[in-house]
Recover the amino acids of this structure.
């Protein structure tokens, strides 16, 4: 009797285990992320045929940690929270304070170079135009110059990025960005050559409108001198304003009107983080938006309807939403408790999302590739290749 009960109990537990394992297996192979990974089987050849043009900024980024307690010559504890740093600053008001920063890395920076680096990692033939150094690119861009065709038109800007577990503070030195103008651009890339670069590209990405103070004038020239000369199907045009809080409402409104005009020649994708989406919403007269799936997704749809462009995508920290002619969707991103790096996560999301657009995938799949690209980057501090992306998607 006793033996029989033991045997029956073992059979029962084995059955439960098998069902549980089957359910886990079924969930993993039918999850949206896994299904997107299956759609990437023929992506390599397609991406190899899809040329990309990106511009026009360029920065040298120094990633820093703040020392909370120095323990020895080589050992220290780091300030993990931004509030700890702000508290120390607040305590020093009326007095003085000394902060020690430890350099974690010096790397290529700027929305354009980081996005370009991510795109070229997926195998897209890429041309980059921007202020990477004059007369020669700064050494931090050496890898990009080997993997892409590069036109360097001015000296780079410099950014000190102080990273915490809950965010980052970026301190920029932007004097050289004033040299990024239509005149400088054409001096390095003659107009006929620029038309050819636009013509040959499946995707054009124009980023960092906020810091490039002559970008609106460059857009005007593209609309009047380049776009009318393009033939065939409309190409994808990705635009990232990049934190327009310090620009006036009038400037932002003028930029949005230019973006709307681009839709006549391109399929425009406007990429925004959550703060940027709220700023754009205010200029467009939309109400306050909360950081929830439904409200952010609806907000993307509202902005798209008002601007009458192809796609609007908004990526808060933990999820992303988008809207196009087919409808709207949101996707939750992978949670990374201890990111190795956060500077550039948004640019990697943008690159992944654009890969989905290039491949003709639906809005949900584009979002999934975007959050996976960003998630892989902050976990590993490097851009994923196509095989890396596929494997990572299968774990989500």
């Amino acid at each position: 009797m006793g033996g029989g009960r033991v045997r029956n109990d073992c059979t029962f537990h084995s059955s439960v285990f098998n069902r549980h394992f089957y359910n886990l297996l079924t969930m993993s192979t039918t999850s949206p992320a896994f299904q997107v990974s299956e759609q990437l089987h023929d992506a390599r050849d397609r991406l190899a045929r899809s040329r990309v043009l990106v511009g026009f900024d360029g920065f040298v980024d120094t990633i820093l940690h703040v020392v909370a307690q120095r323990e020895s010559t080589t050992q220290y504890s780091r300030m993990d929270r931004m509030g700890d740093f702000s508290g120390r600053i607040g305590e020093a008001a009326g007095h003085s304070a000394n902060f020690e920063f430890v350099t974690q890395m010096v790397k290529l920076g700027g929305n354009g170079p980081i996005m370009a680096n991510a795109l070229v990692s997926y195998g897209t033939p890429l041309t980059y135009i921007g202020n990477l150094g004059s007369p020669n690119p700064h050494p931090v861009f050496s890898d990009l110059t080997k993997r892409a065709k590069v036109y360097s038109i001015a000296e780079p800007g410099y950014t000190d990025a102080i990273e915490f577990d809950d965010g980052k503070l970026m301190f920029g030195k932007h004097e050289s960005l004033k040299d990024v103008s239509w005149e400088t651009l054409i001096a390095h890339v003659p107009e006929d050559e620029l038309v050819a670069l636009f013509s040959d590209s499946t995707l054009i990405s124009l980023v960092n409108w906020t810091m490039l103070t002559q970008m609106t004038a460059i857009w005007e020239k593209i609309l009047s001198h380049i776009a009318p000369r393009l033939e065939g199907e409309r190409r994808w045009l990705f635009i990232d304003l990049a934190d327009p809080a310090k620009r006036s409402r009038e400037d932002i409104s003028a930029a949005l009107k230019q973006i709307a005009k681009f839709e006549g020649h391109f399929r425009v994708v406007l990429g925004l983080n959550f703060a940027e989406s709220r700023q754009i919403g205010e200029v467009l007269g939309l109400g306050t938006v909360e950081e929830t799936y439904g409200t952010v997704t609806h907000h993307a749809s509202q902005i798209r309807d008002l601007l009458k462009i192809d796609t609007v995508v908004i990526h808060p920290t933990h999820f992303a939403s988008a809207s196009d002619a087919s409808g709207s969707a949101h996707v939750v991103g992978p949670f990374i408790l201890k990111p190795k790096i956060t500077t550039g996560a948004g640019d990697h999301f943008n690159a992944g999302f654009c890969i989905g657009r290039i491949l003709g995938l639906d809005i949900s799949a584009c979002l999934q590739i975007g959050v996976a690209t960003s998630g892989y980057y902050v976990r590993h501090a490097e851009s994923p290749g196509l095989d890396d992306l596929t494997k990572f998607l299968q774990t989500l």
Observations:
- The first strand starts at residue 51 and ends at 56.
